[in-house]
Design brief:
Blueprint (H helix, E strand, L loop, with lengths): L5 E5 L4 H12 L3 E6 L2 H12 L5 E5 L5 H9 L6 E4 L14 H24 L6 E5 L11 H20 L6 E7 L5 H4 L3 H9 L9 H11 L11 E4 L11
Parallel strand pairs: 1-2, 1-4, 2-3, 4-5, 5-6, 6-7
Helix pairs in contact: 1-8, 3-4, 4-5
Bound molecules: NADP nicotinamide-adenine-dinucleotide phosphate.
C-alpha cells in the first residue's frame, strides 16, 4: 500500500489556502491547515473532517520559525508544503513607506521562505513545494510593495528549485489572477464588480480553480516540472492587443 502523503498548507483558514487544503484532502492526502486564528482554523479543519478528509488545524505565524517547526515536528512526515499565507493592501506610489515594504516582505516573502525551507528539510524524494505568488508579480498600479513581494516569491521558487535539482523534490509556484476570496471581498462591492469586469471571462476565479493547479504540481505526475510559475488567471497575463 502506498503511504498517505502529508500536506501542509499555510493560510488555510479561508480563501485560496482553504480550497487548496480541501483539494489535496480530496486527492487523498492528510492535510495540516495552518493559519493565525484558532477559531478560524478549527472551523476550517472541522468542515473538511465532516467531508471525510484527514484534516488537522494548527495555529502558527509563518514569520515565526519556532512556531512553524513545532507544527511540522508534530507530524511523522511532510511531503508537500503550499505557502498560501499572504497579505495585501493598496498604497499608491507617493504614499508608500519603508514600513509598507518591510511588513509586506515579512509575510509574503520571509514567511514563504521559512515554511518552504522547514518543509524541504523534512522531505525526501517526491517532496513538493508549491508557493503562491500572484499575477501581480508582473506589475500593477497602487501596490508596488505587493508586486515586489510576489516577484520575490517567484525568484525564491526558482532559486530553491535550482538548488534541489536532481533530488526528486520540486519547487514550483502558482500565480493566481483575481480570485473570489475574503481578501478580495474586503473591497467595496462595486470595486469587486469593476475588477471582475476587467478579467477576460468577466469574473473572478473561484479558489477551486487555483487549487486544481496546485494539486497537479504536488502530484507524482508533475515530477519533471520544477522552478516554474504557472499563471492561473484566465489568460489575462498574456497581455497583448485585442479584447
Ligand atoms: P485571504 O482570504 O486573506 O486568506 C489568507 C489567509 O492567510 C488568512 O486566513 C490570513 O489570516 C492568513 N495569514 C496571513 N498572514 C499569515 C501568517 N503570517 N501566518 C499564517 N497565516 C497568515 O487571501 P487569499 O485571497 O485566499 O490569498 C491567498 C494567497 O493567494 C495570498 O498569498 C495572496 O497574496 C495570493 N493571491 C490572491 C489573489 C486574490 O485575488 N485573492 C490573487 C493572487 C494571489 P488573517 O485573515 O488573520 O490575516
Amino acid at each position: 500500500m502506498v503511504a498517505k502523503r502529508t500536506s501542509l498548507v499555510t493560510g488555510a483558514g479561508q480563501g485560496i489556502g482553504f480550497a487548496i487544503a480541501r483539494a489535496l484532502g480530496v486527492a487523498g492526502d492528510r492535510v495540516i491547515l495552518l493559519d493565525l486564528d484558532q477559531n478560524k482554523i478549527d472551523a476550517a479543519a472541522e468542515s473538511l473532517r465532516a467531508e471525510g478528509i484527514d484534516a488537522l488545524g494548527a495555529v502558527a505565524d509563518t514569520t515565526n520559525r519556532g512556531q512553524i517547526q513545532a507544527v511540522m515536528d508534530a507530524e511523522e512526515r511532510i511531503d508537500t508544503v503550499v505557502t498560501a499565507a499572504g497579505v495585501y493592501w493598496d498604497r499608491k506610489l507617493a504614499d508608500l513607506t519603508e514600513d509598507d515594504f518591510r511588513k509586506m516582505m515579512e509575510v509574503n516573502l520571509i514567511g514563504t521562505f521559512i515554511a518552504a525551507q522547514e518543509g524541504i528539510a523534512r522531505m525526501t524524494t517526491g517532496g513538493r513545494v508549491v508557493t503562491i505568488s500572484s499575477r501581480g508579480a508582473l506589475g500593477g498600479t497602487r501596490f508596488a510593495h505587493y508586486v515586489a513581494s510576489k516577484a520575490a516569491v517567484v525568484g525564491l521558487t526558482r532559486a530553491f528549485a535550482m538548488e534541489l535539482r536532481g533530488t526528486g523534490i520540486t519547487v514550483n509556484s502558482v500565480a493566481p489572477g483575481f480570485t473570489d476570496t475574503p481578501m478580495t471581498r474586503s473591497a467595496p462591492e462595486e470595486m469587486f464588480e469593476a475588477w471582475s469586469k476587467l478579467e477576460p471571462a468577466g469574473r473572478a476565479a473561484d479558489p477551486s480553480e487555483i487549487a486544481s493547479a496546485v494539486v497537479w504540481l504536488a502530484s507524482p505526475e508533475a515530477a519533471f516540472v520544477t522552478g516554474q510559475t504557472l499563471f492561473v488567471d484566465g489568460g489575462k497575463s498574456l497581455g497583448g492587443l485585442g479584447i
